C-alpha cells in the first residue's frame, strides 16, 4: 500500500476537486452560451460531457492507481480521449471560423468543398498520430497500404473521383464564388453551393445541379465579374402604325422607373429595324438600361417586360402586335355603377354621360401610378387591387403612409392643380377607372357639393401626412421609381 502523501494521493485529490469544479464551470459557461445562442455551445457541451470525464478517468487509472500505460484498456481510453480532442478541435474551428462568420465575409463565401478537404486532412493526421503514439503502429507501412488501396478504389470509382478532382480544380482556379451569377449553356442562375460532386445553381423554376466535370469541361460566363456597372439591351416589337417617337418615349419612361437602374444614368431607346412578323409590318426597338451590377439584369428585364405590357395598353400602342380590348363600355358602366356612382352619389344620367369619357386601365405590381410632386391630370378610381401610398421623411427616405383599396380615389389634386403630396405604387395588379380633369370639372360644375367633398378628402390626406411628420411632395419634388 502506498503511504499517504505519495504521488497517487495528489492525483486522487486533483481529480476529486478538479472534476466537480470543472463540471460546474463548464455547465455555467454552456448555459450562458445557450442563452446568447452562440455556436460555441456545442463544443463546450462536448468538452463537459466527454472530454473532461475521460481526462479524469485517465488521471485516476494512470496517476492514482498506477496502471501501466501499455495496458489495453488504458490504450482504449486514451484513444477515446484523443479522438474526442480531435472532434472538439474540428467542432471548435467550425464554430469560430465559419458558423459565426459575418454575412459577406470571406469565411462565409468559402466553398464547402474546401472546408471538407481541410477537415479530411485534419482527421487523417489525427488518426495517424493516435495510431503511432498510443498503439505504436508504424504508419509508414499503413500509408503504403492505403496508397495501394486508394489506387484500386480510384479505378472503381473513377467517375466520382473525377467529379471531386474537377471540383478541386475549379476551387483552386476560383473562376466563380458563392453568390456569383453564371450563364452555362441555356442555364442562368446564382451559385448557392459548391461541394465534392457538383455546383448548385439557383434559377427560376428550381435548383439546377451541374456536375463538376461537366462545368470544368465546358465554357460558361460569370456575369458577376468584373463587378461594376452593367448595361443591358431589351428588344421589343410594336406595330408599324405606332408612332416611333411615342414608342421610344414610353419605353424610356418605363425603364427610368426601374429600381435596379444605376443612379445618374438615363435609359435610351432606338428604333433598330423592321420586321414582317404581322400583317402591316412591325418595328423593333432596343432599350439600353444601365445597372449597378450584372446580377440585377434578370430582375430589371423582368420588371421592364411586365410594366411595358401594361403601359403599352394604357397608351393605345400595340406591343407584339396586340390590340387591347379591355376598356369596354360594359366594364366602364359596371365600374361607374358599383364603384364610382356610390362614392360620388351619381345619378343614372350622370353615369350615362360619363361612359364615353371614362376608360378602364390596368397597372402591374410595383408599377408607379402617381409620383410625389407631380400634378395629376386625371382621377383614378380603384376597381380592383390595392395601392401603396408613400411620402418622404426628414432624411429623404420614401416610406409607406397608407394603402388604398377598392372604391378609393387617387389624384384628387387634379382639380386644384396642386402637386400630389403622396406617391402611389400598385401592390398587385390594379384595375382602375380613369376620368380626365375636364370631365371631372364638368361634373363638379353641375354639382358644387361634390367639389366640397373632394376638398375635404384632400385636406384629410394632407393632415394625415403632416401628422406623421413627413414632407409633402410639393416640397420634395418628383421622386423616380428607383428611389423607392
From TrEMBL:
* Primary residence: membrane
Task: Output the superkingdom of the source species.
Answer: Bacteria
Q: CDD domains this protein is in?
A: CAP_ED
Q: Name one GO biological process term.
A: transmembrane transport
UniProt keyword terms in alphabetical order: Membrane, Transmembrane, Transmembrane helix
Q: Per the UniProt record, which residue ranges are transmembrane?
A: 6-26, 47-67, 73-97, 117-136, 142-172
Instruction: Return the Gene3D superfamilies for the record.
Output: 1.10.287.1260, 2.30.30.60, Jelly Rolls (2.60.120.10)
Q: Which SUPFAM superfamilies does this one have?
A: cAMP-binding domain-like, Sm-like ribonucleoproteins
Span of domain Cyclic nucleotide-binding: 346-444
Q: Subcellular localization, per the record?
A: Membrane
Q: Name one GO cellular component term.
A: membrane
For this entry, the protein name equals Mechanosensitive ion channel
> What species does this protein belong to?
Mycobacterium spongiae
Amino acid at each position: 500500500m502506498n503511504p499517504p502523501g505519495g504521488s497517487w494521493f495528489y492525483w486522487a485529490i486533483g481529480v476529486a476537486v478538479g472534476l466537480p469544479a470543472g463540471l460546474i464551470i463548464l455547465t455555467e459557461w454552456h448555459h450562458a452560451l445557450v442563452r446568447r445562442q452562440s455556436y460555441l455551445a456545442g463544443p463546450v457541451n462536448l468538452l463537459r460531457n466527454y472530454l473532461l470525464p475521460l481526462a479524469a478517468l485517465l488521471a485516476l487509472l494512470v496517476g492514482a492507481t498506477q496502471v501501466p500505460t501499455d495496458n489495453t484498456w488504458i490504450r482504449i481510453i486514451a484513444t477515446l480521449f484523443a479522438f474526442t480532442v480531435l472532434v472538439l478541435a474540428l467542432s471548435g474551428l467550425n464554430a469560430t471560423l465559419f458558423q459565426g462568420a459575418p454575412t459577406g465575409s470571406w469565411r462565409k463565401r468559402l466553398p464547402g468543398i474546401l472546408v471538407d478537404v481541410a477537415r479530411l486532412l485534419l482527421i487523417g493526421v489525427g488518426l495517424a498520430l493516435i495510431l503511432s503514439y498510443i498503439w505504436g503502429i508504424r504508419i509508414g507501412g499503413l500509408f503504403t497500404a492505403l496508397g495501394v488501396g486508394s489506387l484500386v478504389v480510384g479505378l472503381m470509382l473513377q467517375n466520382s473521383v473525377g467529379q471531386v478532382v474537377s471540383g478541386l480544380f475549379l476551387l483552386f482556379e476560383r473562376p466563380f464564388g458563392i453568390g456569383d451569377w453564371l450563364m452555362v449553356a441555356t442555364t442562368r442562375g446564382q451559385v448557392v453551393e459548391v461541394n465534392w460532386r457538383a455546383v448548385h445553381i439557383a434559377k427560376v423554376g428550381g435548383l439546377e445541379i451541374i456536375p463538376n466535370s461537366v462545368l470544368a469541361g465546358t465554357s460558361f460566363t460569370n456575369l458577376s465579374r468584373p463587378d461594376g456597372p452593367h448595361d443591358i439591351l431589351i428588344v421589343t416589337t410594336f406595330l408599324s402604325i405606332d408612332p416611333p417617337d411615342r414608342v421610344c418615349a414610353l419605353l424610356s419612361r418605363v425603364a427610368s422607373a426601374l429600381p435596379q437602374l444605376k443612379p445618374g444614368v438615363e435609359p435610351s431607346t432606338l428604333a433598330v429595324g423592321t420586321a414582317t412578323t404581322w400583317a402591316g409590318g412591325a418595328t423593333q426597338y432596343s432599350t439600353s438600361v444601365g445597372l449597378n451590377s450584372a446580377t440585377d439584369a434578370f430582375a430589371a428585364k423582368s420588371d421592364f417586360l411586365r410594366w411595358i405590357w401594361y403601359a403599352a395598353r394604357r397608351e393605345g400602342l400595340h406591343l407584339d402586335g396586340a390590340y387591347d380590348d379591355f376598356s369596354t363600355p360594359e366594364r366602364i358602366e359596371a365600374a361607374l355603377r358599383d364603384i364610382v356612382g356610390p362614392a360620388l352619389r351619381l345619378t343614372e344620367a350622370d353615369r350615362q354621360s360619363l361612359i364615353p369619357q371614362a376608360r378602364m386601365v390596368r397597372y402591374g405590381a410595383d408599377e408607379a401610378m402617381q409620383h410625389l410632386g407631380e400634378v395629376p391630370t386625371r382621377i383614378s378610381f380603384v376597381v380592383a387591387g390595392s395601392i401603396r401610398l408613400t411620402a418622404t421623411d426628414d432624411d429623404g427616405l420614401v416610406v409607406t403612409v397608407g394603402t388604398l383599396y377598392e372604391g378609393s380615389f387617387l389624384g384628387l389634386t387634379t382639380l386644384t392643380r396642386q402637386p400630389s403630396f403622396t406617391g402611389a405604387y400598385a401592390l398587385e395588379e390594379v384595375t382602375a377607372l380613369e376620368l380626365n380633369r375636364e370631365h371631372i370639372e364638368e361634373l363638379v360644375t353641375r354639382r358644387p357639393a361634390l367639389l366640397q367633398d373632394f376638398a375635404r378628402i384632400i385636406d384629410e390626406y394632407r393632415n394625415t401626412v403632416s401628422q406623421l411628420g413627413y414632407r409633402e411632395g410639393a416640397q420634395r419634388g418628383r421622386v423616380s421609381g428607383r428611389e423607392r
